[in-house]
Every structure is written in structure tokens, then in C-alpha cells.
Amino acid sequence: MIVNMSDNATPEQIEHVIQRIREAGFQPHITRGTERTIVAAVGSGGRRHEIEALCVAPGVDTVVPIAQPFKLVSRQTRPSPSVVEVCGIQIGGPDVVVIAGPCSVESREQLLETAHGVKKAGATMLRGGAYKPRTSPYEFQGLGIEALKILREAREQTGLPVVTEVMSTEDVDLICEYADMLQVGARNMQNYALLRRLATLQKPILLKRGPSATVKEWLLAAEYLLAGGNRNVVLCERGIKTFETATRNTMDLASIALAKELSHLPVIADPSHGTGKQSLIGAVSRAAIAVGADGIIVEVHPCPERAFSDGPQSLDIPQFERVMRGLSDPLRRVVAPLVSSA
Ligand code: PEP
Ligand code: MN
Questions:
Q1: 273 in ligand 1 pocket by Cβ < 6 Å?
Q2: Four-CA torsion 273, 277, 283, 289, nearest 10 degrees
Q3: Which residues, chain by chain, have CB under 5 Å from ion ligand 2?
Q4: Which ligand 1 atom is the nearest neighbour of the CA of 129?
Q5: DSSP per residue over 141-207, as a string?
Q6: 305 to 138, 249, 300, 342: CA distances (angstroms)
Q7: Which secondary structure element, helix H or strand E, spans residue 235, and what is its range?
Q8: Whose CA is nearest to atom 6 of ligand 1?
Q9: Less packed terminus of the chain by CB within 10 Å, N or C?
């Protein structure tokens, strides 16, 4: 249930509502907007009728049910978009964020060359896998802690904040020491033990959509993070499994617009995994931004032909520079609101 306070509700009236929500057996989650405060009553097993009765409490405007199964992630709970900050970079703000770097960290030279190259081309954050979720156990699994140290050095040299994937609860503390944002990969979107653990942190989380997950399941995975106390969540569409085999996955652009409509969380797009093809990355990046994505995450490698993982979908540095020039089309932020309000 959502308790919408009236514009002129006093702090005491808001505090009273929060108190009553607790007494009724729910957790209160407060969103203080510029005009009004919204208090969501979240949880199971509480006494709903006591919340419904708050419609006559002083300072309350309306009490309405939350229409979707995801509550804290919903726009109903927070009508204005959230901005997630990663070391001063705002995701979900006015600027499009570009996260770039290799699929896997392979060596110091490979990562540093990529980091400097993408920084020069205008990237705002660096990506690089240290622990890799690979379909086959015989494929490169990542350099682990050695990769984390190289990522840290790249951050020190370039100033780019770093995002890297965490696959297991056991690695969370270690990765937190080195990374500025933790990626939950597509295969782990429904790893609830991992989500519950990450929910206890304040570290920003990049939550990829599972290849077979519906938008509702994706938003419910994000709900685990918010419900556990971590509001610093960015969603990432990375393509889903369909009957199509010409692309590695099918980039579900409509899901980006839909996720932005249903949720206040920032949404970015991963055209590398979404297409599996170097040649499509520029076009799909522009399309994602046109439908409202707050940024993109792109795989870049100094020599994709030699990459240990995901070479066919990695751009080399000159190709990445060209994609960046394509993105700076001044129409991009004009087009996006027109499309999302259509
Ligand atoms: C990756 O980012 O390299 C990766 C493994 O992504 P996903 O989880 O989307 O497959
Ligand atoms: Mn990859």
C-alpha cells in the first residue's frame, strides 16, 4: 500500500504515518519528493485494513494499493527517476553514461591499453571481468584477484570508476575492495542468496536481465536489492533468448522503455551481448538511447581477434571511437522523450 501525504503535511504527521505503518506490521519506505512525501507500506503479514484506515489520518491525501508485485522499484512508490552515483558519475541523470572495456581482464597491458583508449574516446566508466560465468567449464574463467588488482591500477591511472561481475557471495567482500560497482550477470539474476547479500551493501549494483527472464521477473530481482536496503541499483538489458539465431541474443529494446515506465531505476543497454556482433553495436546503442536508456555498456578489446572471451562482439579502439562519435548526435536527448511518451 502507498500512503500519499498531502503537499502541506507536517513532519509530525509524516512521522505518525510511519509509526502506524510499523504498528500494523509493515516496513515503511519513505520517498521525499520536491512536492510531496510518499510512504510505502511494504512486507507480508501486516494488517492491511489498518493502512487503508490511514486515509483519514491528518496530513494524508490518499491511500492506494501498489498495482505491481514489485513495490519499491515501482514508479508508484517514487514517481521521479532515481539517479545512481558511482564515484561522481551519475547514472540516470541528464547525461548518457558509457561503460566500456573488455569482456575479461586478460593481462595488465591489455587492460591498461583499453582503459586509456576508451577514456580518450569519452567513456565514463571501465568494465572488465575478473570472475567469468562461462557456459563451458573448459573456457577461460577469469584471472580472479589478479584481474581485480589490474582493474584498480587502471582506475588509478585513468580515473574511470570500475564495474566488474560478482558471481558468488563468497567473493563479495574481496570484489568490494577493488570495484566501484558490482555487476550481477544475466545468469545470476535470480541467484537470491547473492541478491540478498548485495542488498546489505550500499555499493552500486548493475543488475543484468536474465536471458529468459520477463521484465516482471527482472524488476522483482531488483526488488530484492531495494527491499534489503540497497537503493543503488541500475538495470541492464542485455538481450534475451528467442528463436532467432542470426544474433547471439535478441535485444529487447521495448523492455528498456517498459522498465523505465514501470520503474524509477536507471536502465542501461548492453548491445555487445544483445547482438553478439561488432557491426551492430553502433546502431543498437543509438536505438537504445532513443528509447530512453540512460547509458550503454560496451565490450572493447585492443585486438578482438585475440580476445579470450567474446571477441566477435568486441570493438577495437578505433571502432569504439566511431561508435562514440555516432552517439554524440545532438538529437539523441530530443528523440528519447518523444519516443518514451508516445
Ligand atoms: C559480461 O558482461 O561479460 C557477461 C558475461 O554478461 P551477461 O551476464 O550479460 O552474459
Ligand atoms: Mn562478455
A1: yes
A2: 10
A3: 103, 310
A4: 3
A5: ---THHHHHHHHHHHHHH---EEEE---GGGHHHHHHH-SEEEE-GGGTT-HHHHHHHTTS-S-EEE
A6: 19, 21, 11, 41
A7: strand 233-237
A8: 185
A9: C
Q: Is 119 in the pocket of ligand 1 (CB under 6 A)?
A: no
pLDDT tens, the chain, 342 aa long: 999 999 999 999 999 999 999 999 999 999 998 889 999 999 988 999 999 999 999 999 999 999 899 999 999 999 999 999 999 999 999 999 999 999 999 999 999 999 999 999 999 999 999 999 999 999 999 999 999 999 999 999 999 999 999 999 999 999 999 999 999 999 999 999 999 999 999 999 999 999 999 999 999 999 999 999 999 999 999 999 999 999 999 999 999 999 999 999 999 999 999 999 999 999 999 999 999 999 999 999 999 999 999 999 999 999 999 999 999 764 555 455 554 444
What residue ranges define each of the domains in the chain, with the CATH number in brackets?
Answer: 2-64 (3.30.70.1140), 84-341 (3.20.20.70)
Give the type of residue at 238.
R
E strand map for 57-137:
60-64, 84-86, 89-91, 97-101, 125-127
Residue type for 178, please? Y
Residue pointed to by grid coordinates 567482500:
173
Relative to the alpha carbon of 208, which ligand is closest? Answer: 1
